[in-house]
């Protein structure tokens, strides 16, 4: 079952890592591997959400999502989007950006370095909003209860995430403004940070708005179909479940693609904190995207979701750490090993906590069963 579901992902991982080592050396191998792990860990909640929606679709639309959808996910968001960010930030055409990356890596590296402040501010704000919206939401399951409980209470204040994000952006921009008397370039960088950060915030709000729009459409469509089904049953008419699934499938597909795009942003933006090499980035994130799709199929076929309940928390704390790191890298350089390592450690910690929680629950249930049996015997 596992080999059948993840077979293509395993094969592409082996080919991708081998190609990275052959083409660019062991450094590329390590970076691509870290990016793959980063994408899988950050997109685990994406797979869970996808699985919950995908199981409602008929077999045809499931195939569409897992074929055309993967092309959009890998080549659209993981390859075109990083190139677009570099092209916009460095003020060059997308084709020119690719040509520079291939033929003039030194010049490309210089352009990306010059544009790093804009990329980091944009990405840092986008990731920060994802993190803030997560920790300010009141959830039934809490990983770090001592921290998450008071933050959930604060989250009842309207627009708190936006306010905090803007304060962080202003502080970041003012940090550069304080050096304006020594160099005019710093003042330009401060303005760039401010404008790019606002753009990242707006992008997050637009993506969230689109996701909400399609979610509302889905709810309306499902409600209408349920009413039609009940009416058909009352009249003694046959109800075609496949037909009903087909009517809502288009909205489901669009909703899933918007969701995937929104979840892809954190991986792509987070990747800029690890490397500026767009091909290493595309390769690592593409491998990760394959696992997300395979994991989605696995969860649908197994019918098991959220077994490791703290992984989503770990992924979002990793997002928060990446947001802070990106903003710091505007002024200071941080090793890629530290950046990637923090995310891996947080994910590993959340996974181990999930395993320990599952074992504790199983042990408690075992004791309850044992005491119940003892009670029955003593009663007899």
From TrEMBL:
<feature type="transmembrane region" description="Helical">
    <location>
        <begin position="239"/>
        <end position="256"/>
    </location>
</feature>
<keyword id="KW-1133">Transmembrane helix</keyword>
<dbReference type="Pfam" id="PF04332">
    <property type="entry name" value="DUF475"/>
</dbReference>
<feature type="transmembrane region" description="Helical">
    <location>
        <begin position="30"/>
        <end position="53"/>
    </location>
</feature>
<feature type="transmembrane region" description="Helical">
    <location>
        <begin position="337"/>
        <end position="355"/>
    </location>
</feature>
<protein>
    <submittedName>
        <fullName>DUF475 domain-containing protein</fullName>
    </submittedName>
</protein>
<dbReference type="InterPro" id="IPR007427">
    <property type="entry name" value="DUF475"/>
</dbReference>
<feature type="transmembrane region" description="Helical">
    <location>
        <begin position="268"/>
        <end position="292"/>
    </location>
</feature>
<feature type="transmembrane region" description="Helical">
    <location>
        <begin position="65"/>
        <end position="90"/>
    </location>
</feature>
<keyword id="KW-0812">Transmembrane</keyword>
<feature type="transmembrane region" description="Helical">
    <location>
        <begin position="115"/>
        <end position="136"/>
    </location>
</feature>
<keyword id="KW-0472">Membrane</keyword>
<feature type="transmembrane region" description="Helical">
    <location>
        <begin position="192"/>
        <end position="214"/>
    </location>
</feature>
<feature type="transmembrane region" description="Helical">
    <location>
        <begin position="157"/>
        <end position="180"/>
    </location>
</feature>
<feature type="transmembrane region" description="Helical">
    <location>
        <begin position="313"/>
        <end position="331"/>
    </location>
</feature>
